[in-house]
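Researcher: Please generate the 3D structure of the following complex. Treat every line as part of one assembly.
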Amino acid sequence: MIRVGVNGYGTIGKRVADAVALQPDMELVGVAKTSPNAEAAAARQRGYGLYAPADYADRFERVPLDGTLEDLVESVDAVVDTTPSGIGAQNRPFYEEHDTPAVFQGGEGADVAEMSFVASETYEEAQNSETARVVSCNTTGLSRVLGPLDREYGVERARATLVRRGGDATQPNRGPINDSMPDPPAVPSHHGPDVQEVLPEVDVDTMAVKVPTTLMHLHAVNVSLESEPAAEAAAALLDEHPRVELVPGEAGVEGCAHLREAADDRGRPRGDVWENCIWDESVTVRDADLYFFLAIHQESDVVPENVDAIRALAGDADAAESVARTNEALGVGLDLLPEERQVEAGAD
Amino acid sequence: MIRVGVNGYGTIGKRVADAVALQPDMELVGVAKTSPNAEAAAARQRGYGLYAPADYADRFERVPLDGTLEDLVESVDAVVDTTPSGIGAQNRPFYEEHDTPAVFQGGEGADVAEMSFVASETYEEAQNSETARVVSCNTTGLSRVLGPLDREYGVERARATLVRRGGDATQPNRGPINDSMPDPPAVPSHHGPDVQEVLPEVDVDTMAVKVPTTLMHLHAVNVSLESEPAAEAAAALLDEHPRVELVPGEAGVEGCAHLREAADDRGRPRGDVWENCIWDESVTVRDADLYFFLAIHQESDVVPENVDAIRALAGDADAAESVARTNEALGVGLDLLPEERQVEAGAD
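Model: Done. Output below.
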C-alpha cells in the first residue's frame, strides 16, 4: 500500500483525497487544512485523518485534529500538495526535509518540481523523480490530445482558443459578469508554453478569453498536421486516449452543462468530468488542418493524473497499469451512448 | 439628395434610420413597422415618417401612420430592408416591382441580392447592382481585417474562433445562462463561407462558441500569412482601415464592457461601437502566423456599411468619398487615447 497525505483540501485537494481513498493500492492517511470550516468537518465525516500546520492547530476546536502537518508528511510515502498557487513552492523544502516525494499542482511554476506530469506523456520521467508537477487543467487537456496527434500525424503547429470559465461556482468574487475578456490580451497565454513543458517538441500557440460561466472551459482547437488523416481516423485516434471522450451528435450534449449533467446522472461525485470531451461532429480536417471543440472540467480533469503521479513517484506500476487502475477505481468513461451495434450484412 | 426608406425598425433598422438622418446627402423619408409599440412611438418622436404594410395599417391607432409601406417604397430612391431574417427575401420582389434599389441584411442568404457588401472591399461591385446584402456583423468585422491583410501580405489561411454573445440585452429569451456552447458544433460555422462571399480569394475557417454575454462578440483570430511582417507593421496596417481601431494597452480597456463604456462616454447613440476594435497588445507574429483579438459590436458595426450601400446603389460618390462622408457624419473613430506625441530628439 502507498500511504498518501494530501496537503490542502480545497477544490483539487478534496477530489484527490476521495480518489486516493478509492484506490486499491493506496491508503489515505489524511488531509491537512488551515481552517476548521465546513470542508474540514466534511473530511472528518468521511473518516479522513485531519491534520494542520502546527501554527494553525489551536484554531481547530470544533473540528478535532489527528496531528500536525509534520506528523502527516513524516508518516506517508507521498504527499500531494494542493495548497493555493505559490504556497506549494514554499512547501517544497519542508517535504524534502522529510524525504517525502511530493506532487504539486499546475498553479505552481514549472520549476517547483523536477518534471511536469501528464500520465499518457511523461509517466516514465516521473518514475525517476522525487517531485512532479501535475500541470493545469487546460494544459492537461491539450497535452492529452496533442501528444497522440503528434506521434501519429506530426504536429506542425497547434493553435487553441481557450474560452475560460470566469470562476468556479464557489468563487463569487470572480467574474466577469457580462463580458468576454481577452485574458490576457497578450499572445500566447501561458498555456502554450506550459504544454511545451510536457511536450517540448510540439509547437503550440494559445489565446485565452474569460467569460461569465462556472461549469467548464471550452477550447476551439486547430492543429496543422504534417500528414493529412481522414476526420474519422483522427476522431478515432483521439477517442483511444483513456481520458478523452468523443461526444456523439445523437447524445444531445449541446454544451458544457450537458456534460456535467451526464456526470451527475451517472452518480459521479460532484458531477465531475475527468475526461476531456470532444464533440464528434466538430472533428474536421481540411488540407491537413484539423479542428475540434474540446471541453475541460477545470475542477477535476487533473484528479486521475494526481493519482497516477503518486504511483509514478512512490509505487511500482508502469504507466499503462497505473492509468488502468486509476480509471477502474474512479469509473472513468462517461459512455454517453452505448457503442454502436455492429450491423452485420443480413442473409436476406 | 438620396431619398431613403427603412423597412423594419428593430435593432438594425432604428440605427440605420438615425445614421441616414445624419447624412448631408440623404433624406430619411420614413420607416416602416408592423407594430405600433414604444419603438414606433420613438420613431415619431424623432420626427421620422411612419409607415406600415397595408395589412397592418389598422393596428396603428395610438401611433398614427403617414402611409403604407407601398407609399414609402414608391417614393424613395433606395430602401433598406431590416426586417427579421428570411422576410427580406420575401420582400425583394415587392421592391423590384417598384424599381426601388434595395439593401438587405446579413441574416438573409447570399442569394437575396446581387452582391455581398463591405464598403472597403466591394463598394464598386454594388455601384453596378440594384440590390446589395450588407453581410452580418461578424462577417463585416472579419472582412475589414482580412481584406487589407490579404492585399498587403497574402493570406495563406485564416482561422477565427468567434466567442459570440448569447443575445442582445433586449433578447431575454436567448441564452445560454451559464455555459459555453459550440454553436454550431460543426466546423466551419457559416461565417467562414460568408466571408468568402465578400473575399472569394481568402481561405478562412471559423469556429463559433456561444456564451452568456450581451455586449459584443470577441474573435480570437489567427492568420497564416504568405510574407512575415513585424507585429508593429501589421498593427499599423490594421489601424489604417477607417473602421478598425487599435486599443492601446494604456487605455485600460480590459474587455467589451470597457469599449461600450468608452462609446457611452463619447456621447454615442446607444453606446454603439461602429469600429472593430483590436487590442494592440494582442497583435503578435510568430513564423508568419499573425494573432489578434477583435471585438465586434453586433448591433452597430454594419450601420455605416448600410449607409455606404445606399450611396453605392443610388448615389454617385465613390467608395472613399462615401466612407469618409459616413464616418464624418456619424463620428466614427473612438480615439481611445490621444495620438502619441512624436518626441523629437531634444537639443538638450
